[in-house]
Write a structure and sequence with these properties.
- By secondary structure, this protein is α/β, with parallel strands linked by helices.
- It folds into three domains: about 110 residues, Tetrapyrrole methylase, N-terminal domain (Cobalt-precorrin-4 Transmethylase, domain 1), CATH 3.40.1010.10; about 100 residues, 2-Layer Sandwich (Methyltransferase, Cobalt-precorrin-4 Transmethylase, Domain 2), CATH 3.30.950.10; about 40 residues.
- Strands 3-2-4-1-5 form a five-stranded parallel beta sheet, with helices on both faces. Strands 6-7-10-8-9 form a five-stranded mixed beta sheet, with helices on both faces.
- The termini are far apart.
- A hairpin with a 7-residue loop joins strand 8 and strand 9.
- Helix 10 packs across helix 11 and helix 11 crosses helix 12.
- The protein binds S-adenosylmethionine (SAM).
- The site of S-adenosylmethionine has 23 residues, from helix 5, strand 7 and strand 10.
Length: about 270
């Protein structure tokens, strides 16, 4: 028989305290210990739910040192719930390291589903939900950030980003450079009183960004132009496609030469009379 306890990864609300499942409440009541990103924050939720439990802090800076204590308790048969300040642990929140370690030690990890900001932003965004990529927060380090922006530029799938309020404007200005006229939506203050979905164009979003308060998810439409372009096979079709996009003849010749990996002169001669 397995003498280990289980680690329950429990999602908590992202604003509205009613967004917690019956199962999550049951688990929080039943476990021996709750490992929380910020014990004071979680205490408020527990008080609201009338639950009294021992708490241990498990935040970003203590992740590696605290995991040994938690693993030890799990190995002694205690059941532990892991929660973060908001939403799903492990999603831009601590959890990953502890969960990997539990799996290494053959400790059962059980997800308890619930709120997650990017999932809710996506489903109400009005953008394609079939395929998407979630990139979390863009890295601050220059080279890594440039690579991620390049990924966004090329992605044909819907892209989701988290962003802090004081960095929103900078990020939107950088996005403007790479997404041209692709749609962009900002999901603000999800599940809270001031929840809103801003579906303006990017210039308008940049203009109002200084006045926006709260928490944000940025959702960006996939790069449809490249899909359309890839579907087009012949040089003539490419010419018409770029023309419809408003490019000049000179620009079109350059683009087709690049797409088809031939010299500009070859294309120039072909479309001399256009
Ligand atoms: N674990 C959380 C989850 O499951 O979504 C994410 C935690 S991460 C540290 C915090 C970021 O998530 C915020 O900066 C914001 O981008 C996004 N976020 C969290 N709650 C939100 C909300 N109510 N509305 C919009 N975005 C939110």
């Amino acid at each position: 028989m397995d003498k280990n306890g289980s680690l329950y990864v429990v999602a908590t609300p992202i604003g509205n305290l009613e967004d917690i499942t019956l199962r999550a409440i049951k688990i929080l009541k039943e476990v021996d210990l709750i490992a929380a990103e910020d014990t004071r924050h979680t205490l408020k939720l527990l008080n609201h739910l009338n639950i009294s439990k021992p708490l241990i802090s498990y935040h970003r800076h203590s992740e590696e040192s605290r995991e040994d204590t938690i693993i030890h308790k799990l190995e002694n048969g205690e059941n532990v719930a892991l929660v973060s300040d908001a939403g799903t642990p492990g999603i831009c929140d601590p959890g990953e390291i502890l969960i990997k370690k539990c799996i290494e030690k053959q400790i059962n990890v059980i997800p308890i589903p619930g709120a997650c900001a990017f999932v809710n932003a996506l489903i109400a965004s009005g953008l394609d939900t079939k395929e998407f990529i979630f990139l979390g927060f863009l890295p601050m380090q220059k080279k890594l950030r440039k690579n991620k922006l390049e990924e966004i530029k090329k992605s044909q799938k819907t892209i989701l980003l988290y962003e802090a309020p004081h960095k929103l404007k900078k990020t939107l200005i950088e996005l403007k450079e790479i997404i041209s006229d692709r749609k962009i939506v900002i999901a603000r203050e999800l599940t809270k009183i001031h929840e809103e979905f801003l579906r303006e164009n990017i210039n308008e979003l940049i203009n109002i960004s200084d006045s926006l308060k709260g928490e944000f998810v940025i959702i960006i439409e996939g790069n449809k132009q490249d899909i359309e372009k890839n579907e087009i096979k012949t040089e003539e079709e490419l010419y018409e496609f770029y023309l419809s996009q408003g490019f000049s003849k000179k620009e079109i010749i350059k683009k087709i030469a690049k797409d088809k990996n031939v010299t500009k002169n070859e294309i120039y001669i072909k479309f001399l009379n256009k």
